[in-house]
Amino acid sequence: MPRSRTTSLVTAALAVASAALAVVTTGPATAAAACENGYVALTYDDGPNPSTTQALLTALRNANARATFFNTGQRVQQNPALARAQVTAGHWVANHSWSHPHLTQLSAAQMNQELSQTQTAIAQATGVTPRLFRPPYGETNGTLQSVEAQLGLREIIWTVDSQDWNNASTAQIVAAANSLQPGGIILMHDAYQTTINAVPQIVANLAARGLCPGMISPSTGRAVAPDGNGGTDPGPASCTATYAETQRWGDRFNGQVTIRAGSAAITSWTSTVTLSGGQRVSTTWNGSPTWDSSGTVMTMRPNGNGALAPGASTSFGFTVMANGTWTAPAVTCRTP
């Protein structure tokens, strides 16, 4: 082969290698530069929705964006596979009440049931126990915030309302997102094609401003950089609670709650058991219970060492006097 041809090939090969090296070494810096002005949170309420959730997940994937889904318990119970798909796709799932009522018009016990049932439904469907809660309509008060605290939930409202629920067009939704500031949160809904259509332009406009979609910090309630751990929420070690009826008689039944640690060890746990109707607990075992003023919400803590290794479990039980109501209690778990 002529020397000039050999030299040309070597030069070309070195150029290709150099270019490849440049891609590898500058990629992370470029990604960091893209988010140089911080993070915002894209949030979608009221799902999962059989008509829109999958299309919304596709739009977010194509835009390389992650979001927080504030799901209602009823819809999660009806569509558990869609809730799992949200987590599998790398998004965060959060609590938006069971039936989307005006919570401030309910009693503390009713509030607790709305939130705790949703915690259980999401945990059972996805394996993730939410740490964030958005009150329907953004309505809140001190009683609700006390219930949220008991369940280990951080209340999240929003800084920008997209107005998609108010028939906003795709262009109007995109324009609303343009007003997001670092740490901000935009309210959208998992229900409208206009909202899905807005995703690529929202993400492109954010990138042009040096902003990226991120997660909501359970500590501060502001948008921060994603944790990189898929759909799970970051922060202290977590636990889940699973209920099972173990025995039934004509007037009562026995229930068992299994407490399981997440991927990290926990030093203790607190579980709530919310009864329905005129139900009352007559006996408990393997735990130390306390009660709210209504007698319908039992808070159970370990009666000894509550530490659990990653993935390990323990259980406690109780007898419920049914008083004509055989609905299974709603259960939740949180770490102190």
Automatic annotation (TrEMBL):
Residues 232-336 form the CBM2 domain. One of its GO terms (cellular component) is membrane. GO terms for molecular function: hydrolase activity, acting on carbon-nitrogen (but not peptide) bonds; hydrolase activity, hydrolyzing O-glycosyl compounds; metal ion binding; polysaccharide binding. GO terms for biological process: carbohydrate metabolic process. Keywords: Hydrolase, Metal-binding, Signal. Residues 1-22 form the signal peptide. Residues 38-214 form the NodB homology domain. The keyword Metal-binding applies. PANTHER family: CHITIN DEACETYLASE 1-RELATED, GLYCOSYL TRANSFERASE-RELATED. This is Peptidoglycan/xylan/chitin deacetylase (PgdA/CDA1 family). It comes from Catenuloplanes indicus. The lineage of its organism: Bacteria, Bacillati, Actinomycetota, Actinomycetes, Micromonosporales.
